[in-house]
Sequence to fold (397 residues):
Amino acid sequence: MQSGSSPGGKDGRAGTAMIQRLGIRSLIAAGGPNTKHSGTKPRPEVIQAMIEMSETFVQMDELLIAAGQEIADMIGVPAATVTSGAAGGLVLQSAAAIAKDDPDAISQLPITDGLPNELIIQRGHRFGYDHLYLVPGARFIEVGTQESCTRKEISDAVGPNTAGIIHLIAGPLSETTVLLEETVDIAHSHGLPLLVDAASALPPRSNLTKFVDMGADLVSFSGGKAVRGLQSTGMLLGDPRWVEYARLNNAPNATVARGQKVSKEEVAGLLAALDAFLGEDEELETARYRRDMQVIVDQVSEVPGVTASVKHEPDYYIPHAVIEFDKSWAGPGSMEIGQALLAGEPRIYLRHGYPWFNGIAVDPLNIQPGELEVVASVVRSMLIRAASGEQISTVRS
Fold:
C-alpha cells in the first residue's frame, strides 16, 4: 500500500483524492472521536442537511434560538443552545456565570474588573481542556486533593467573588470526590450555577436528561463524537435562565465568544445528527460494538504479558477492547506502541498513553467497514513483535 492512500486503496474511500493532493496520509481511527485525529464521521443525514441549508440565508440569532428550542424539545430538557463544540460550551458556561445578561459586563469580558470571576473546581476534576473556562477572564479556586474532596472544602471556598462551581463527568474520576448531586446542593445553596462538562458522556443517551434533571444549570455536550454531527458543534442544556445567559454571551453577538461561530450549515447538521442519534436502538448498538471488540480481544489474548478484555461502563462510554500489560510484559510502553502504529502502514490511531491503565485500547466508534480485521491483525502482529523484544519503530501489514 502506497503512503498517502486510504485503507480502501487508490480508488476506494471518498476523500482519498484530496488527501493525495495535499500530500498527507489517511488513518484508521480506532481510538475514538479524538479531535486531533479528525473527530467523528458525520452521518449522511448531516451532510444532506448542510447542503440543503447552504441554499438559503437566515437571521442567525433567530436560527440559534429556534434550533435551541428544537434541541430542547427533542431531548426533553427545559432549554438548550448551540455551541462551537463541547469546548466552546465551557467558554460560554464561564461567560454566563460571570456576566449573566448584563450588556456592559458581556462587552467587558475578558476584563473582569468589578465582576465575580472565581470558579470553584475540585482538584481531582482538573483536566486537559479546563483552561477554556479561563478564556472569559475567570480564575480557578481549586479545592481538595487529586484523590479526594469534601462538601465542606467546596462550601468553605465560596466567597464574594465566586461566579460558579464546575463539575466534570468522566469515568476515571476518584469515587472520593464530591458527587454531582452534592455539588448541585452546594452551588444552589449559595445561589450559584453548577457548570458541567459532559463532552464525552454519550452514550448512554439518558445522560442528555440525567444531569439536568439532577439540577445542573449548564451541561456541555459534543455534537460530534457519538452524536456524529460536525465535531465543531455542541450543545448547552439546562436551566432556561442560564441557557439564555450563555446565548447572549455567544456569537454572533459582539462578545468574548465572537470567534466561536457556528455556521447555519453546521446548525442544520447538528439537528439532523441529534435526531438520528436519538432514534437509534442503544441496546443493539452496544451489542454490535461488543461483538466487534471481541474480535480484537480474541486476536491478542494469547500474546505473552497481555491481558485483553472488552470493557464498558463506567470507564468507557461504549465497549472497548482494552489490552493491558501485566508485570510479565517484556515489550515497550503504550506510548511507544501507539506512536509506532501511527507511523506504520496502514496508519492506525488507538488509545494509548493514558495514566489510569498500562496498556492500549481500541474504540469501535469510527472503525469503518473492512477496517476491524485490519486493526486486529496489525495490533496482534505489533504486540507479538514487541513481546519478543523486536524493534517496533514501524509496522506494515
Q: What stands out?
A: Residues 16-30+281-387 form a domain with the Aspartate Aminotransferase, domain 1 fold (CATH 3.90.1150.110). Residues 345 and 396 are 5 Å apart (CA to CA). The longest helix spans residues 282-300. Residues 1-11 have pLDDT under 50 and may be disordered.
